[in-house]
Recover the amino acids of this structure.
């Protein structure tokens, strides 16, 4: 029973990180989480320790952990690997997606459009996470999928910064729609290109934000 509860809490935290529900630098206190979830501290501590071991969280004094802050170097390194692996997963997934999975992708895009109009950050990030995970999940390679998810655990919290520029939101869904059309046609190369364009466009935007943060920190 305890192992099952620990797994549930671990998956809950993991889903939150993947969907960007936590902020870079945010501290997660064991007792606060246990109180919020109505459980004892022990399974919460075990779930958090698993995520620390995976590099998704980092340990802090006084029995707390935090979401690691993002740096320019760390983001660049993660981005390089994501480009290679996520492109590979998309191309492999084309032709393997079921009709139901394509409908899930369509639903995610429709809800993301609504979230963009309403400036619903968490709504957008939740469906964005589901879109990519369903898409990559069809690649048929569990090792590849797990590696991609581990990278997303590290960058998911930083995706919140996409909504710091009002005009950027107008393009947030364009590349998903291009990828979806290619996937409907079973065109893996075109779908891969669209997702790589998505990663490049928003990766550069986030990198620019990190450069600005660095410059402001130096001048301050």
């Amino acid at each position: 029973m305890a192992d099952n509860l620990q797994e549930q809490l671990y998956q809950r935290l993991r889903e939150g990180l993947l969907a960007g529900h936590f902020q870079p630098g945010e501290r997660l206190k064991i007792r606060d989480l246990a109180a919020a979830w109505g459980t004892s501290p022990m399974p919460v501590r075990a779930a958090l320790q698993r995520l620390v071991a995976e590099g998704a969280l980092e340990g802090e004094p006084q029995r707390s952990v935090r979401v690691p802050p993002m740096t320019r170097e760390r983001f660049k390194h993660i981005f390089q690997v994501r480009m290679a692996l996520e492109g590979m997963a998309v191309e492999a997934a084309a032709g393997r997606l079921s009709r139901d999975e394509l409908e899930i992708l369509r639903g995610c895009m429709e809800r993301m459009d609504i979230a963009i109009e309403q400036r619903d950050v968490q709504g957008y990030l939740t469906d964005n996470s589901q879109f990519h995970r369903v898409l990559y999940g069809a690649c048929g390679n569990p090792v590849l999928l797990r590696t991609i998810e581990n990278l997303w655990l590290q960058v998911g919290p930083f995706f919140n910064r996409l909504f710091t520029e009002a005009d950027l939101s107008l393009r947030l869904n364009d590349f998903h729609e291009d990828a979806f059309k290619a996937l409907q046609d079973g065109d893996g190369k075109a779908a891969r290109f669209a997702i790589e364009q998505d990663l490049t466009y928003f990766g550069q935007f986030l990198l620019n934000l990190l450069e600005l943060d660095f410059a402001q920190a130096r001048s301050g």
In short: The two ends are 51 Å apart (CA to CA).
